[in-house]
Amino acid sequence: MLRTLFGLFDEATARAYRRQIWFACGYALLEGVAFGLTLPALAAVLEDDPAKWNWFLALALVVVATLCVRAAQTDTALRTTITAINVLHRRIAGHLATLPVDRFSPAHSGELIRTVWPGAAEVTKNVLTNLAPLLRGVLTPAVILVITALVDWRPALVMLATAPLLWLVYRRTTVALDRAEQRTHRAQSEATARIVEFAEEQPTLRASGRLGLGDRLLHEALDEREQAMRAGIGRELLARAGFGTAIHLAVAALATVVAWLVSRGGQDAALLVALLVLVLRFTEPIGTVAELARGMRQSAAAVRRTAEILATQPLSVPDEPLPVPAPEAGGGLSLRFAGVRFRYPDTESPAVDGIELDLPAGSATAIVGSSGAGKTTLLRLAARFTDPDEGRVSLGGADLRELAPDELYGSLGVVLQDVVLLDGTIRDNILLGRPSASEAELAEAARLSGVDEIVARLPLGWDSPVGSASIGLSGGERQRVCLARVAVQDAPVLLLDEATAALDPMNELLVHRWITAMSGRRTVLLVAHRLNTIRTADRIVVLDQGRILDQGGHAELLERCARYRKLWRSHEQAGGWRLRAPV
Amino acid sequence: MRARQHRTRPPRPDRRVFAELTAPARGLLRGALAVQALASVTALLPYVGLWLIGRAAFGAAPPTTAVAGVILTAAASVLSLLLRLGAYWLSHRADLRVQRSVRNRVATRLSRIPLGWFGAGAGGRALESLQSDVEELHAAVAHGRMEVISAIVAPALALAWLLAVDWRLALIVVLPSIAVYFQQRWALSGAGERQRGVLVALTSLLTALGELIRELPTLRVARRGDGASTVFAASDAFRAAQSAAYERENRRSVAGGVIVDAVTTTALVIGFGALLVSSGTLAAIDLLPFALVAVTVANPLQEIATAQAGMRGARLAAERLRSLLETPVLPEPEQGAAPRGGEVTLDGVAFGYRADEPALRGIDLELRPGTITAVVGPSGAGKSTLAALIARFYDVDEGAVRIGGVDVRDMTGAELYRRVGFLLQRTRLVRTSIRDNIRLARPEAAEHEVIAAAKAARIHKRISALPKGYDSVAGVDLRPSGGEAQRIAIARLLLADPAVLLLDEPTANVDPDTEAQVQSALAELAAGRTVLIVAHRLPTITEADRIAVLDGGRITQLGTHEELLATAGVYRRMWQAYQTKEPVS
Q: Which CATH code fits B344-428+498-581?
């Protein structure tokens, strides 16, 4: 487990952890020696033997050494764990950011959040806070046992005999506790996911009534969590009873041995009395072992889960990334799909298959097709949200997988189906596209994207807060901010998904103007769900069940492609549809 | 300046808040404390047993005393163990009961506060309350006072014993620990306040992480390689908060800790014991009680200080929970008035998200049963807000919204949501079976009713084609497209059968070839109800019974499509914009 743990850290943190473990061992050994020394020292005091001062001096020296090690260890342990938590958080978050985008489902998010907290603390802090006393629980009694053996082999033998007994009890109770712990963890993760869902889906849940299934889902998850915890408490009680009984048996057995030695007489009385005291110092540290070992196992489980998350395959980053090729003379970069096939995990048939598509620099291509045809998947592959299972996607002749991700995203202006603004001001969000953009460039992008009107309307203007906290922007307005961000970015390739959904006619007109202004000097790939935007494209690609059915101009396709004719008809019908109250 | 700030005492958390939250388990907690106290008393008896054996060994008592000592040691340790386990069981039962009651109260509150509260980072805040804070109560309920009790009872009795044997040595054992107790209180003073800083940093870390998980695609394209940078920054801040909160505190408490360490106490007893024994003022055998229990006397005061710090943290959590539990809810009458019919009236309605920015002003509108009213207007005109007010997502600032003649504020939530159903631009399904998603509002609905609703919503075929059919879990077995999610939501509404229906551009995120299906499903749903539709695409509403044009938060035009086209105004301009961009066929 420690090896896995060190694998999660960087070199410096792993080194600090190793040092901590040596510290803890040293502390436990010294403490054992200190307690062991009380045996001759106490015996000498009880007999008023003049050697007592020598023994006391030795004891005092060892005690000072023990305390120094303890103080040093406690101090550095805290700093080590605080650093380690940070290291772990950064690794987990950095890893998440490199994973294929479709990796997460709602059910996973609770698990992920728990990995970061309290998981990271379980992995780092608890390991150290448990490890030191755990070593103490084993090493200190071992040293005491050795010292006792030097005095009298019989109580030492009884001490030795307790070890297998305790081990047996521990093993028996552990299996059941482990199972209880797994169940509790599952229940906790589920409850976390349900709590988030409960808060984020409040409008739907509330609309469905307070006694509806939505509330029930939350409460079921919380109930299961409570059941799991209750079962865990039961198991815990059994384990504590078992281990506690074993420890007390050990104390009683040792007391019996001493009493027996007393009754036989002829023994050194002072030494026997001192031995009674040592019995306590022997069993006290052991008493904590079971609980600590359990804490360690929980940490081990957390370490395992964290390692699993970090082991999920990220999008590969080349060792020696190629630079993104320079845009061609007329502007834009060519984009090419060659034999591309991609299947989503947990689905049977590929989302796109055998895609051969060449988008010359500066061209504008629209992709049409019914839902599930693979339009959005193509765009996601072009933006390298995920890699194709077969074939390759290349930009300016270079495979996307060979380019440095930062540079790649710098060359792609992407407008997604879900328009999300990040927390910050309108200005912040637009400048994300190119932080170095001048005020004039910002103003131009705002004008082109219709953000100037929004800024004029809001009292705080450019500094109006948007993102999750914004309630003042409508869907269309958020999309405009997003368009302005991409305009400022001035990338040679534009990828737009469903850019005209959820827009009123004024906005729709604006988006058309935006695309027209942006295309020509750039390569444009457009997913047209509504077919309104297709007239801005040089070429239309018809996708059906993940394959390219046909491509060409609008008139051409209307004439020869039945699928396209059907799409166009349903588009026209949708446009002309009326919400009619039946008579 | 900073040093002075540090010295000012943080406000003491109110004990009453904590007491009130833990009230449901008060009896259990008292029982647990009593049993724990008893356990602590019996925990001392084995030492007495060992002492008896020692006396026999030293010849201070007859040899048979050793047998009594063995029996006492064994019996008392078993009894003490049983009592401790009993106390553990009781206190954890109490903890679960408290957690359950607090969680239920928080969840109930969350489902009643205005939806505006949920805008920013709702998930993170709900997690903080329903998870972190509730778990923090655990420290106090299950451990805090129990630890204090056991740290007081046994050591006090042990100290009494030692004082009776030799008061000088007893003082030598106990004085350092009293000093350390005050030193620890000083070391931990303000711990609660410092912990608050850590908690704030933790909440922003979890919020940033939630955003990373949810918005990864956007972060990747907008921030490029830098998607995790907010999480990094939040984690660094969390690290700094932890350092500031714990490092100095830790150094101070270690300093005290070594003074009362078991090895220190043992060395003290032996050193001073040797002096007293050789001076002839202490019988050698009387050193034995000290050697046995001095460690017990010395250590607990530190434990008390630590336990108290934990309890203070729990009281702060209790206060946070309390402030959430006191967040104003949309007030609801005990006995709701029953509306007659499905007529909706907006009467002089004004509303603003912020006090200085009215989103809607002077709205008068009547929606009659069996008619369709469309609301159109430029982006940001307040269209969606209007619909949200009818569903009472917010309360109006002025005027009134009435359904069937009754002000929505005079209806119970259950009554209101039985009458009003809505379909938003994007439906997100709840992670449960499709069947339960459809019967969300009517869990008792029979299978044939669910299927009938799904058929009417044109989604039955799609569901039946899934390997698990209606048992498929949304988000796990099926990641529905926009159109599929909308049709499932329509089936849900058909089953719920509300008299008033609010549609907020329900086909915005639907592909055109599925749109036809969604539209026929919608037409089925709209039949005979009072319908308000918020529309962006004008052709969808040209045959609405009435069209209200919203501009700048006011209704500027009201009439049928033909009437509005005939007058100059926003509507005609919008219609013209639509006409010019219609693609050439």
A: 3.40.50.300
- pLDDT, tens only, A141-176: 999 999 999 888 888 998 898 888 888 888 888 888
3-state secondary structure B393-458: CCCCCEEEEEECCEEHHHCCHHHHHHHEEEECCCCCCCCCEHHHHHCCCCCCCCHHHHHHHHHHCC
Instruction: Quote the CA–CA distance of A471 and B552 in Å, as a whole number.
Output: 16
What is the β-pairing status of strands A335-342 and A493-497?
unpaired
Give B116's pLDDT tier (boundaries 50, 70, 90): low
Please say whether the dihedral angle defined by the alpha carbons of residues B501, B507, B510 and B512, taken in this order, is positive or negative.
Answer: positive
* Spatial CB neighbours of A348, under 8 Å, sequence gap ≥ 6: none
Cβ contacts below 8 Å, chain A against chain B, sum to 502
Q: Are strands A547-552 and A390-395 parallel, antiparallel or unpaired?
A: unpaired
- Regarding whether A8 and A102 lie in a shared domain, the answer is yes
Q: Residue B205 corresponds to which amino acid? A: L
The CB-side HSE value for A457 (13 A sphere, CA atoms) comes to: 20
DSSP string, B214-233: HSHHHHHHHHGGGTTHHHHH
Q: Residue B258 and residue A277: Cβ atoms within 8 Å?
A: no
Tokens of A288: 């904590």
Q: Is the pTM of this model over 0.80?
A: no
What CA–CA distance (Å, rounded) separates B407 from B402? 4
The secondary structure of residue A313, as a DSSP letter, is P
* Contacts with A284 from chain B: Cβ below 8 Å: 262
Cα separation, B292 vs A278, whole angstroms: 9
Taking an 8 Å cut-off on Cβ atoms, the answer to whether B213 and A104 are in contact is yes
Q: Closest Cα partner for A443 from A428, A427, A423, A466? A: A427
Domain regions of chain B by residue span: 15-325, 344-428+498-581
Let me know whether A154 and A8 are in one domain.
yes
Chain A (509-548) residues lying within 8 Å, Cβ to Cβ, of chain B: 509, 512, 529-532, 534-535
- The answer to ipTM > 0.85 is no
Question: What are phi and psi for residue A544, nearest 5 degrees?
Answer: -145, 125
Highest CATH level, class, for B15-325: mainly alpha
Same domain (yes/no): A354, A460: yes
Among B224, B268, B507, most A C-beta atoms within 10 A, so best to mutate, is B224
